[in-house]
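dumping this here before i forget
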Amino acid sequence: MYDFANSGYTTVVITAVFNAYFVSVVAGGRPWATFAWTLTLSVSYAAIVLSAPLVGAWADVHAAKKRLLGATTTGCVVFTALLAQVGPGDVALAVVLVAASNFFFGTGENLVAAFLPELARGSALGKVSGWGWSLGYIGGLLTLGLCLAYVTHAQGLGAPAADYVPVTMLITAGMFAAASAPTFLLLRERARPQPLAPHSLRQAYARVLHTLRHAAQFRDLRRFLACLVFYQAGVQAVITIAAVYAHEAMGFTTRDSIVLILAVNVTAALGAFTFGQVQDRLGHVPTIALTLAGWIVTVALAWLAEARTPFWIAANLAGLCLGASQSAARALVAYLSPADRRAEFFGLWGLAVKLSSILGPITYGAVSWVSLGNHRLAMLITGAYFVVGLVLLAGIDPERGRRAAGLASGSDAA
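structure:
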């Protein structure tokens, strides 16, 4: 249910509506507008990179994942609602509110992921992760659908984007708050507080430093995190600039972009659910390799597309790969993590994903700025990250990594 709740934020704010609104209306379509958007997100991701391992380690020590999740959810909901105050020319206000809301979203995303190993045995991690991701896309679909209904109504009355986009921020914040309620009412914290050092904050830092210093012990997890940084750089670039690319390169309107992302959410849900069912049988690494090959094809199609039909095909292929690759990655990290340090290791997962969230979008934004708005070139260059990820993936042995995690936790990690 939390995946269902928080997906509306990324779908509406980051992917479908506010990003294009920021570039075309708030920043007035200036040459630096796309770069400013990607730089804003990169700053928030950098803050998550610096804090994620510490937050995860602190949550492990205090058995406080649910408590911290409540705080991050409140932060994201409040700052998303405040985006309704952003109008034409309010670049500074938009930058601050987007950076803050995205920081709270990303930190909460790490925390909720750390519940996965408590809710599923090792043999079912892929399946349960797939359920979460697929339900998440349905949640994003519902929130975006409500926004589409309002946008269609407002456009029918002749309202400009500066009037109806702010209202979609209130819709998104309200849906996040309401749909996350079952998580806080029903989910219980199964972890137990661990013995505290005199300075628990210092202990949390010590745990993170211990993990980093002994990373060689987890060679397959370490390699997968490096792989994740590169291929997620491509994924995050696509997520961040989807509506911008559709608007700038393909001539889509706000309503066109919302309809496109609605369709992509359906295919993403199907991809997450389908691959979640087969991942535990097919294997984590082959599943991810298959999705990376799909991403490479997607980027090539989008780069070549001149008409809307091939672009629609590319977008829906991206949806299938998006749901599958994200679900599979979360399950593989759970599979390779020691049982008593899951929140900490998901903090490292969050660190890798947020590094990629800096690398991919900022590459796209910089290329589009330097090339004076050549979005096709920017898409092609960021697509190279999928190729690097596929190469790194080839050296990962998940069973060897699973044994290392079991030895580290003093269990068989079955």
